[in-house]
């Protein structure tokens, strides 16, 4: 049951966020969305790392915050320079999220198959 | 051990993600509910609904204004009614003698040596009323519809048996002063016309002194009359209206009808 604590964290975060009186100014909504995308990417990356057994907490945390900030800054810079770096960020993070998800899926499925094979092997023996 | 090692960073990351997600979600819904992002049809419907509401409210304002105006008017009517009632009451008080009155008029002074009896007083008072007197008092006794002018005798002191005149059941002391308010000239003429009351009195060698006075004060009656049995009587409306109609139609019918059974 290793995933209960993170899920509780997610629910608590959503609760806190909906109870915060702070309202995001309309101009920053675009950058915030990019930051959210980057964060999602980091989270899926973290889960993938956990499954691959090469998890590093420092890398995850640093990646989470720097990715989010950099993505937002990049989008902002793009707006200033009149280059739609916004779409570049969406593309990059979107691709990475799907890759991470695919890896997670592969991993979960192979894990399940291994377990089943193991169970069958035990039965056969 | 290893589980705790990786679950804490992921929890922190997910906490932050949750905050960001809900903030973003709120902001996005806020923007979506912004008027500039609404569909044209919804906007039209909203405008229509609001303008209808506004019209209704404007009608209500007009309605309430009319109500207010009518209330103010009725209030004013009531005030004028009250004023007129007040005026009427004052008039009635003057007429009934329940308030002291003031005005120009005559004083008639009768000394003790003059051979005058109560009927002469009555005649003088009647003559004054005839001549247009508006208020009369005899020795500060106000003369009204309920006044009496009479004679009484002192039966308890046998030694000096005496007859005296009374007004409103009070003994009159000499000199008798009759005060009257009205047109002084008319009143004087009424008293002194040839063959009138003064001529009559002159036959008995009585010459009451008549004086014109610029400003007289006549007191109120001492005991106001209280009515226990008297009620206002209004004849049934139909009969009056019919009579009036008949009169208007043919003035001859009334006396004829009165004669016939």
Task: List strands and helices in order, with pairings.
The complex is a heterodimer of chains A (125) and B (261).
Chain A (H helix, E strand, L loop, with lengths): L3 H16 L9 H24 L4 H25 L3 H40 L1
Helix pairs in contact in A: 2-3, 2-4, 3-4
Chain B lengths: L1 H31 L7 H57 L4 E10 L7 H13 L4 E4 L2 E3 L5 E6 L7 E6 L2 E2 L4 E6 L2 H9 L4 H7 L5 E10 L18 H13 L3 H7 L2
Antiparallel strand pairs in B: 1-7, 1-8, 2-3, 2-7, 4-5, 5-6
Please provide a written account of the structure:
The complex is a heterodimer of chains A (125) and B (261). Chain A has 125 residues and is an all-alpha fold. Chain A has one domain (27-124). Chain A contains four helices and no strands. Chain B is rod-shaped, with a radius of gyration of 45 Å. Among the domains of chain B are: 2-35; 102-218, 2-Layer Sandwich (Alpha-Beta Plaits), CATH 3.30.70.1880. Chain B has 261 residues and is α+β, with helices and mostly antiparallel strands. Chain B has a five-stranded antiparallel beta sheet, with helices on one face. Chain B starts with a helix and ends with a helix. At the A-B interface, helix 1, helix 2 and helix 3 of A face helix 1 of B.
Q: How many angstroms does the end-to-end distance of chain A come to?
A: 29 Å
- What is the annotated CATH architecture of the domain at 102-218 in chain B? 2-Layer Sandwich
Largest pleated sheet of chain B = 5 strands, antiparallel
Distance between the termini of chain B: 134 Å
> How helical, in percent, are the residues of chain A?
over 70%
The total of beta strands of chain A comes to 0
Query: How many distinct helices of chain A?
Result: 4
Kindly report the name of the CATH homologous superfamily of the domain at 102-218 in chain B: Protein of unknown function DUF881
As a percent range, the share of strand residues of chain A is under 5%
Low-confidence stretches of chain B: none
Task: Give the fraction of residues assigned to helices of chain B.
Answer: 40-55%
Quickly give the structural class of chain A.
Answer: mainly alpha
Can you tell me the CATH topology of the domain at 102-218 in chain B? Alpha-Beta Plaits
